[in-house]
Amino acid sequence: PQAGDLIKMDGLSAVYFLGNDGKRYVYPTSAVYFSWHKDFSGVVTVSSSELQSYPLGGNIAVRPGTKLVKITTDPSVYAVEANGTLRKINSEADAIAIYGANWAKRVIDMPDAFFTNYTVGTPLTSGQVPAGSLVKNANSASVYYFDGTNYRSIASESAFNANRFDFANVITVTSAITAGGNAITTAEVAYDAQGGSQGTVVT
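Predicted structure:
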């Protein structure tokens, strides 16, 4: 396996991300895994001795711009940004304004034990799009990646697929989108490996 691969041990179902630092990073729940991947294609099976040679590096956070998270003991709902930063959504009206009437389908319950992998940042202001989101206008087929500052155009379908973006995560916004920054032309969106360095997505 190479840095950036998904690995598992023969006979076990747990899948890990192999980082650039030679450590394996854990998907704490299946919901976290599927925020990054659609299926298990491409997983490399290794021997038990090889898997043990890669020390644990930490947990992988929910992919920014995909799911909303909450814990069962707190009704607050958060959007996820880079480095496991959580941005609270202040009201249901704000959630609808960003994600539409079906916003609740994006919410996943995070076990309390894994909530400490995240850092709570400032709440989102009304209508604010979280960094890491895919956005488009209703009257256009063009999809943009919002990096927190710029709405970066995605140059091609191959660039979209190389970053494992998913049309199911695209947000339709009413405000006009003006492209800025560099266009996304290849795989470049990194994993959030909590507790360790980020490993670049390799295709």
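Summary: Confidence is low (pLDDT under 50) at residues 195-203.
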